[in-house]
Amino acid sequence: MSQVWSAPVRFAECDMQGIVFNAHYLVWADEALTPWWVEQGIDWSAYRGHQYVVVASTLEWRSSARHGDTVTVDAALEKLGRTSLTVRFEIRVGERLCCTVRTTYVCLSDGASTAWPDDLRARLAA
Amino acid sequence: MSQVWSAPVRFAECDMQGIVFNAHYLVWADEALTPWWVEQGIDWSAYRGHQYVVVASTLEWRSSARHGDTVTVDAALEKLGRTSLTVRFEIRVGERLCCTVRTTYVCLSDGASTAWPDDLRARLAA
Amino acid sequence: MSQVWSAPVRFAECDMQGIVFNAHYLVWADEALTPWWVEQGIDWSAYRGHQYVVVASTLEWRSSARHGDTVTVDAALEKLGRTSLTVRFEIRVGERLCCTVRTTYVCLSDGASTAWPDDLRARLAA
Amino acid sequence: MSQVWSAPVRFAECDMQGIVFNAHYLVWADEALTPWWVEQGIDWSAYRGHQYVVVASTLEWRSSARHGDTVTVDAALEKLGRTSLTVRFEIRVGERLCCTVRTTYVCLSDGASTAWPDDLRARLAA
């Protein structure tokens, strides 16, 4: 698991309770996906005709991020299926875990789910 | 299960793919919670000393909401534990299901998890 | 000037000071534009080849909207030029003015600024 | 004028037209204010009893920021009055100017507008 994204918490991301509003964790996990693909050596421009869509996300909060904090996102492959894969994102402030996001993506071709390309699968298994 | 919230999809909620960005479904479910409490006959101002926090959310997408659509949110109690409860939110455009959100809340008193007040539990069981 | 849009303030729109974060007023004014066009009898699907872009916005705050408030947006034509027009949006909670937004749009055709179509201009002058 | 803030454009900040939605420029300018105070040698924790509020913002767009771009924000004092001050924020992608934001703040003490503290004024004039 390695850090793929980081950002200072924005004032507009904090709510009346002084903590980051829950939906922003999903924004951060979404942003972290692109550098994670890059880190896996996967270049989506090489997979013309294939796309992926988000089908599910789960979020578990352990503690709150606040204005003044810088959040980091670590990402790792959680599960690789034939047509789906789940990435686990751990969002922290320093060592402290704030939220674990698990997002499941499905590979699409011509609008229908399809197996991940072999080359992509090989890179993820490496 | 009954409708507790509704809103037209905003232009700023749609992304480059022309569909609602995933984090906004969590915003809508969050907005739907307050009218759901009201519908259960639960007035949080009557529970001084008790609060609740979100500990987990699960989102499953079935189809996309788009600009021009009006989304509705139905809500129902999914599970009631001693100190936690899970509400299921079904977000639809017309009859079409877009996303099911399940959010788990924990009751707090003085910062520690505590059993839901008996009166609140009675109303939820009604 | 007439009311073209309204919405309850969302929890996620309020910041740590307990008031609506300033950028959301721009979101609301943006949402109010579409029903304002409709109210003027202007159907943009009739102007194929023409588009408009935002070139400037000015926001003046007088008071704050808060969670629990419902905001309304009144809109009126402020100024009509050859290729530009400015719409004034007054955002209120009840009678109380919170923010006046003035946004200037420029008419485009093939990516270049162009005069507003005569028919559209006639409707705005009506 | 010096750079005080920078961030990659987020996917969720882009709209159906593939460009950053206008309200996000206001979020970025707001984020840029805090490091600008720091750069002026102004520590707001030293001004107990004084606060400031935003009373107006103007935004002028010249070009669009897009996903994949990194935006930078330069900030400078535009105008210093007795109780108000205006900061100019220039938001760029590389050398290209996307948006100029001018925001006016008023100094408050006990909820009423008041002159900026002499020490703060001296630092801004330096």
Structure description:
Four copies of one chain form a homotetramer. By secondary structure, chain A is an alpha+beta fold. The first copy, chain A, has one domain: Hotdog Thioesterase (Thiol Ester Dehydrase, Chain A, Roll), CATH 3.10.129. In chain A, 20% of the residues lie in helices and 44% in strands. Chain A has helices spanning 23-39, 118-125; strands spanning 2-8, 51-61, 70-80, 84-93, 96-109, 112-113. The longest helix of chain A has 17 residues, at 23-39. Chain A is elongated, with a radius of gyration of 16 Å. Strand 2 (51-61) of chain C pairs antiparallel with strand 2 (51-61) of chain D.
Strand content of chain A: 35-45%
User: Looking at CATH, which topology of chain A would you report?
Assistant: Thiol Ester Dehydrase, Chain A
Proportion of residues in helical segments of chain A: 10-25%
Number of helices of chain A: 2
Give the number of domains of chain A.
1
- Quote the distance from N terminus to C terminus of chain A: 14 Å
Give the CATH class of chain A: Alpha Beta
From the coordinates shown, what is the CATH architecture of chain A? Roll
Principal-axes shape call of chain A: elongated
Query: How would you describe the oligomerization state of the chains in this entry?
Result: homotetramer
- The CATH superfamily of chain A is Hotdog Thioesterase
SS-based class of chain A: alpha+beta
Q: Largest chain interface and its two residue counts?
A: A-B, 16 and 16 residues
Chain-averaged pLDDT of chain A: 96
Q: Report the radius of gyration of chain A as a whole number of Å.
A: 16 Å
- Any low-confidence stretches of chain A, pLDDT <50, length ≥5? none
Sketch the topology of chain A as an H/E string, one letter per element.
EHEEEEEH
Total beta strands of chain A: 6
Largest sheet of chain A: 6 strands, antiparallel
InterPro entries (chains A, B, C, D): 4-hydroxybenzoyl-CoA_TE, HotDog_dom_sf
Family (chains A, B, C, D): Belongs to the 4-hydroxybenzoyl-CoA thioesterase family.
Organism (chains A, B, C, D): Blastococcus aggregatus
Keywords (chains A, B, C, D): Hydrolase
